[in-house]
Amino acid sequence: MTAQSANRSAMPDLVISCVILVICGGAIAISITYPPSVSMLLPRLAAGLGLLCAAWIIISKSIALARQRLETGVEGTTGPVDDHTAVLKVPTEDDDEVDPNDAEYVLSHTSRRVWLTTIGFIAGFFLVLYLCGLFVAAAALSLVYLIVIGKKSWLFSLIYTAVLTGLLWVLMRWATYIPSPPGVLLPGG
Amino acid sequence: MIDVIMSGLGQVLQWETLGLMVCGMLIGFVVGILPGLGGAVALALLLPFTFAMEPVQGLVFLLSMWIVTTTAGDITSVLFGIPGEATSAAAVLDGYPMTKKGQGGRALGTVLTSSALGLIFGAIVLGVFITVIRPLVLLLGPPEFFMLVLLGLAFVVTLAGKSPAKGMAMVSLGLLVSYVGSDPSAGVPRFTFDQMYLWSGIELIPVVVGLFGGAEVLQLMLTRSSIASGPLGDTKLTGTMRGVADALRHWPVVLRSSSIGVVIGMLPGLGGTVAQWISYGQARQSSKNPDQFGKGAVDGLVAAGATNNAKDAGSLIPTIAFGIPGGAATAVLLGGFLVLGVNPGQDMLTTQLDVTFSMVWTVVIAGILGVILALALVRPLAALTKISGPVLTPILFMFLVIGAYTTNNSWGDLFVMIGASVLGVVCLRWDWPRVPFLLALVLGKLLEQYLNLSNTMFGSDWLTRPGVIIVGVIVVATLFLSIRSVRRDHRARIANEPTEGPRTRVIQTIGRKK
Asked: Rounded to the nearest 5°, which phi and psi values hold at A45?
């Protein structure tokens, strides 16, 4: 593992640990504001445990990072260009061994454009859901998603959308009577 | 006891219940065949649909789906060399070479029959264990159960993989989330930030749906691909009856592998990914033709199939008897028990014993029916692997939204689901364990409930009860041994890094999937 790749794997752990540290510290601080009659033993113990573990991770990762930086500095031969080359080589060597369906691999190797498109679709879906309700949002999502992302034909997408929305309607309004999120503009949508 | 066992069977053999079982099994087949969508995700997504069901119906629906998921994972392992489930990876080693030799039907017959036999063995052990353990559980009171829940949380160190500190941090986060809402003794809202929605606490279902379902759906949206690249084409699927006979002929392997599966399934944290390789190893050691392993050895395939399903039945034992789930799927299932009003522990072994035995019968019936259906529907099931990600995405998205919203018919649950999805993605991306968080969320309320009961009933004297001290020692030993084992594994990994071969890497990659 190169110093650069070690940095890359340790930094998110540091950030996540800091977030946990803040949450647990906040929970302990808030717990003090409650009257003694409120049972706070377990919440305080849980927050204390979280605080300790987060602090442990922060300290151990920081020490590891500092050591690696020191080693890189002492070696002096592995400059940024060498590191970059090494990082690029690793995936090439591992290409046959990495499962392309592995979650960590998918999430770390997806391009920024695909990420943005996906998040855009999700945000768009929830916006339509908020405004127009579940059935309209389901129809809009499936039609647009199949045409734009799935590269399916108009006919296929239309039939799929009609069947999905129809089945959803039958399932929720006739079969199970499960309430669906209503839209602000279209309460029945 | 016989009456209760037969009452359990009677409850399963109702038309409505059997219909739900078949529905659950069909969904289980689809989920099992599509990699990425594991049993835990499917359970999480379909849990809300059990709200309106009777407890037995809901449990039959969920259990039959979960059981079949494991069986179905073997189909893609054998036909395409792609494990549908992480626990089906060992079946690839001998199943796929057999398919390439034109013995696909025989391989399927072998692996599916051994799966069914393993499941039946596991169910028998489950039934016997429930009968044997019943008097012991009845001796326990709230203090012992408090300690047992604590023991369940101690096992997270094993579930946390290579970093116990990360696992414990996630446990504390899960516990804190479980304590949001009204305090059970004083009724004062805790950590609610003046939000009415939070007064009743954070619901389990939106969290489970987001944590597992949301993260997997996002992954599917990012990959946009179907799973199998090669066509099934003229792969011969004849000779299934020969495969069935092969599995029956290798009954000692079935027996040994099933025993390993049940025992490892009972131990929280180890799970099927470990069980399948231990079982595969013992089958090779005891085989007359060990050199055939990896090239299409029938006994290797039998071992993989039998262990795979037996461990599911084994993992139900601590879940039912003590409310300690062994992994992600049983943690979600435990949430399902609570949602359906079935309380693990004493209730499931006394007043709800018939419900418990209906679960045992479900495991047996769904296991056998699952194999028959799998053999009958193998070609259409294999064709499912051609469905592209974008076609599945809208359907799964609807399940996410409906699953989260129906808990309270509240937008707040949708926000919780989105938050849990973000947490799930962060955990997957940066290798933080999700299961300890879920386990703590499920067990947090139970922990507080048992602590309050213990204090009310016994004051501080409960700390000196023999059962409490014994379980306390086990908790400390578990923590110590788990941390030591993790540290030893870490050292061994560092020492072995240069000699790590491609196969080990593939196995590790597959093992990480869930």
From this structure: -60, -45
Residues B411-457 have pLDDT tens digits of 888 999 999 999 989 988 888 888 788 878 878 888 888 888 888 88
Contacts of B19 (CB under 8 A, 6+ apart): none
Q: Does B376 touch chain A (CB under 8 A)?
A: no
A133 torsion bin: left (phi>0), alpha (psi -120 to 50), beta (else): left
Residue B132 has pLDDT above 50, yes or no: yes
pLDDT digits (tens, 9 = 90+) for B55-82: 888 888 988 888 888 777 777 777 776 6
B134 interface with A at CB cutoff 8 Å: no
Residue A127 and residue A138: Cα distance in Å, rounded? 12
Q: Is B426 on the interface with A (CB under 8 A)?
A: yes
Interface contact A103-B169, CB threshold 8 A: no
Residues of chain A positioned with their CB less than 8 A from the CB of B218: 118, 122
Q: What is the pLDDT of residues B177-205, one digit of tens each?
A: 999 988 877 778 888 888 888 888 888 77
ipTM over 0.85: no
A24 CB near a chain B CB, below 8 Å?
Answer: yes
Asked if A146 and B390 come within 8 Å (Cβ–Cβ), the reply is yes
Selecting from A99, A105, A145 the residue whose C-beta is nearest the C-beta of B394 gives A145
Q: Which residues of B touch A189 (CB under 8 A)?
A: none
| CB atoms inside a 10 Å sphere around CB A100 | 12
**Would you state the structure tokens that stand for residue B399, as one six-digit string?**
């399940």
Rounded distance, CA B418 to CA B210, Å? 6
Q: What is the DSSP string of B367-430?
A: HHHHHHHHHHSHHHHHHGGGS-HHHHHHHHHHHHHHHHHTTTT-HHHHHHHHHHHHHHHHHHHT
Min mean pLDDT across A91-95, B6-10, B355-359, B484-488 is at A91-95
Instruction: For residue A115, list chain B residues with Cβ-Cβ distance below 8 A.
Output: 222
* Phi, psi values for residue B43, rounded to 5°: -60, -45
Does B512 touch chain A if contact means CB atoms closer than 8 Å?
Answer: yes
* Three-state DSSP state, B194: coil
Cα distance between residue A69 and residue B343, in whole Å: 53
* Among candidate residues A74, A49, A68, A56, the one with its CA nearest the CA of residue A9: A68
**Residue A61: what pLDDT?**
87
Distance of CA B149 to the CA centre of its chain: 18
